[in-house]
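haha ok so turns out i had the wrong file open the whole time. this is the CORRECT one, sorry everyone. sequence first:
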Amino acid sequence: MEQRISLVTLGVTDLARARAFYEAMGWHDAHQPDDEVAFFQAGGMILGLWTALGGHAAPGIELAHNVRSPSEVDAVLAEAVHAGGTIARPAAHAEWGGYTGAFADPDGHVWEVAHNPDWELAADGTVHLS
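then structure:
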């Protein structure tokens, strides 16, 4: 696993209110593909606001590590298990077109591992909304 965080997702109870708050704080150019999630480019990573974080109610937080191919998702999940983590969500094709799974570290912190074909993952590991 490359040493980086691609995405921090915050669970929110009201997406419109949360988005308005961050926009009032100076964040701009949100990408909102549906009524459940909004993304803000934050330098070389992304801040996500999601009303359905991990299937549980907000507040919550999930870190994400984006990779360049679906096979890398499987490899990172296997690496996490080998290192002492547990699978929080088995890898599967997502309705948004990518491939994703999640692991929890020994303290229960959840990391999503995802291949998103609609986002650019640069050679240096930075991720950019397309």
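The beta strands are 7-11, 37-42, 45-50, 61-66, 86-93, 99-104, 110-115, 119-121, 127-129.
again sry for the mixup
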